[in-house]
Structures are given as C-alpha cells and as structure tokens.
Amino acid sequence: MKKAALFVSGLLLTALASAPAVAEVVRVKVTARVVDVYDPGTMLHGKILAGSRLTGTYVYNTNTPNTSDDPEGYGRYVPYANEARMRFVSGGIVFENNQPTQGIEIEVDPQGEFGSGMFEMTSRDNKPLASTAQVDEITVRFNGRGNMTQSVALPAAVPTLTEYDPKEVVISSNFGQSFMVVANIESAEPVVVDAVVVSPAAGSFLSTQQFDAALALPRNSSVVSVIAEANGAPLPIGYPGSCTLVPPPTSAAQPAVLCPNADSLLPLAGGAPIEWTVELSNGSILTETSNWTFLH
Q: Signal peptide position in this chain (predicted)?
C-alpha cells in the first residue's frame, strides 16, 4: 500500500496508451413502453402501469458456443458465468439476474429464405425484488425478419426495430403470487465502453518480489465487482474484498481498483494467465488478461 499513490497515478496517466483486449461483447440499451401488466396479488404495488417507461440493458458474448442438437438449423447458447447480463427498471423496481450465473439462455431461430425468425434471451436465475417477490423469467424477444435472425449465430448487432414485431421485454413470476409485465421496445442503442487496463500487464518476477496490481476503468464508470481467475479457478483477490476503489482525481478522469499484494497470486496461478472480469453498473462486462510469471 505504501506504493499505492504513485502506482495508481502512473497507471492512470498511461492507461489510454495501452492496448485494450479484444472482446466479442454485445451490449444493448433499450427503452420500452409497458403495454400490459398482470398483477392480481399486487406484488408490484401499483408502481408499474400500462404506459410506464421501462429501460435497461442486455449483454452477451458472441463467442459463446452453440449447444443446439441441430447447430446448423437452430442456435441455443448458455453464456459462461459473468459473460451475460439482463437488467431492467420500471417504476423504481429493478429486475436483474444474479451474477455470476448459468441461468441465462439465448435461442436463435433463423428466418431462412421465407418466413420469420426469432431471437430470444431469457434469464431464469434472478434476484428477488426489494419486496422479496421472486422473479421467474426476464426475456427479450424479437420476432420477424431482420439483422438479429439472419443465421443461427449470435448477432453482433443492435436490432433494427422496424424489422421486428413483436419486439418486447417480458418479465414474469410463477412463484407464489404471480405477475407479468410486457413492454414494447421503442429504441435500442449500443452501450459504448472503453477497455479496462491492468497494470502490470505482464512481467517476470522474483519469488521474493512484492507488487500491487491496479485496474484502470472506463471514464465516469461505476464498478460493481472485480473477479480474478486462473485456469477457470477463482483467485482470492477481487472487489469488493481485498481490492479497493480509488476515486479519480477529477470527474472526467478514470477511476481505478487497487489490489495490494498481487504477487501472492503467482504460486496459485502456476504460470497461467490471470483473467480479470469487471462488471460495471451499466451492465457492461469487461475482461482483460495479465501474464505474470516467476523468474527461476
């Protein structure tokens, strides 16, 4: 920690000059109008009505493998943990998936030469509402002929809404008192984010050499969590936890996360690259790799 101030200052000065990691990540922000509310048990407390605004994001990685029994004719994708997210808000009520999760599934039924296609992303592993009401499913669905359903592949695109009907967000619960909210999507736009930069990004270190690690985040961003893994196994460092948030010196600068005693990860990683996964409050999932090895 004694090197923290100089270390983070140097990182923030050089972060923009560093090369970002390449990621096939789609992040889409949607605005929708609620067209139907079914809530006989008043689980939503009257806060969401027909005509209410619903906004949110969905995130997935196009590198997710197709697990369909007919991969040439149908796409079925189960994103890896921390690589997908769904979060929507209406009437002050937040609907979002748990994280990390294996409860998100994406289906793509291509349109072919004739007929309509379908893109459907559903989360079945969701956080309960503040009222403790359970949320069964959160779904984004596009039916029609357009840029989301041209093939079985996960589309690396923001949907062209004029080509789809219905184009909707459906949120429902079948636990105890059931409810359903249906909203028609009126706008969709990409969520543009910068990369996360890890410092040191690479290097060889003596077994007795101590160092801290820092992650420079996109400007004006807010971090939810930082997870480190090697060979798919979690490492005992992250945020919240042993790492701390370092606020930017000005409102336009980059915040950072400082992880002291990062050298302790070297024997645990066993020479494998360390994969950092950063979740931001806008639903973005950023990844970066550091390559640290021992000098023998």
A: 1-23
Residues 133 and 239 in one domain: no
Look up residue 163 and give its DSSP letter.
G
Closest CA to 213 of 249, 283, 266: 266
How far apart CA 121 and CA 30 sit, in angstroms, is 14
Query: How many angstroms separate the CA atoms of 285 and 161, rounded?
Result: 24
One-letter amino acid at 187 equals S
User: Beta strand 202-205 with 285-294: parallel, antiparallel or unpaired?
Assistant: parallel
Structure tokens at 58: 């969905």
Condensed to tens digits (0 to 9), the pLDDT of residues 112-130 reads 888 899 999 999 999 998 7
Output the six-digit token pair for 81: 């943990």
If asked whether residues 38 and 185 sit together in one domain, one would say: yes
Query: Are 198 and 150 in a shared domain?
Result: no
Same domain, 105 and 78: yes
- Domain count within the chain: 2
Residues 111 and 53 in one domain: yes
77/196 Cα distance (integer angstroms): 26
2-54: pLDDT as tens digits: 344 444 444 444 433 333 334 478 989 999 999 999 999 899 999 999 999 99
Identify residue 192 by its one-letter amino acid code.
V
The distance between the two most distant Cα atoms of the chain, rounded to a whole number of Å, is: 68
pTM, whole model, 2 decimals? 0.65
Sign of CA dihedral 9, 12, 17, 18: positive
Is there a contact between 272 and 230 (Cβ–Cβ < 8 Å)? Answer: yes
Regarding whether 181 and 202 lie in a shared domain, the answer is no
Structural domain range at position 279: 4-20+194-294
On the CB side of 258, CA atoms within 13 Å amount to 20
What is the distance between the terminal CA atoms of the chain, rounded to a whole angstrom?
Answer: 26
Task: Read off the tokens for 69.
Answer: 């029994």
**137 and 180 co-located in one domain:** yes
